[in-house]
Design brief:
single chain, extended, 3-stranded antiparallel β-sheet, two-stranded antiparallel sheet, 16% strand, 3 helices, alpha+beta
Amino acid sequence: FKTTKTSYKINRYTLNSPDDWMIFENTQEPIIEEETFMIVQNLREGRRRPSVSMGEPPMFSNLVYCADCGGKMYYNRSRKNEKYNYIVKFLCSTYKNERMARAGCTAHYIRLDVLEEIVLHNLREAIAFISGCAI
């Protein structure tokens, strides 16, 4: 019940609202247990896929979220620079996906090297606090 046809003569489908959907649960015996299914879904949610052209993604891939809108920040490599072979950064997904409409978030990003410095600094502060020493 996700789509309807206005007429049998017209081959166009219209989407129904989620309120009009009819869901029939537990009509068939499951192949795997629901616990196993949910574990796999959680693993797939946070997976990091290496690409052929870019190689292995950085360790923060799929773990960085936008501070303004809360959307995921996508891993991106951009043009070459004299200082770097390439610039690795994380772009806000809300802006990237909706930039034509100019809705949602503004254009911002964080470079990987800056992110690594921030995380390293915070780790050092936490370790110093736990051990009782000053930085």
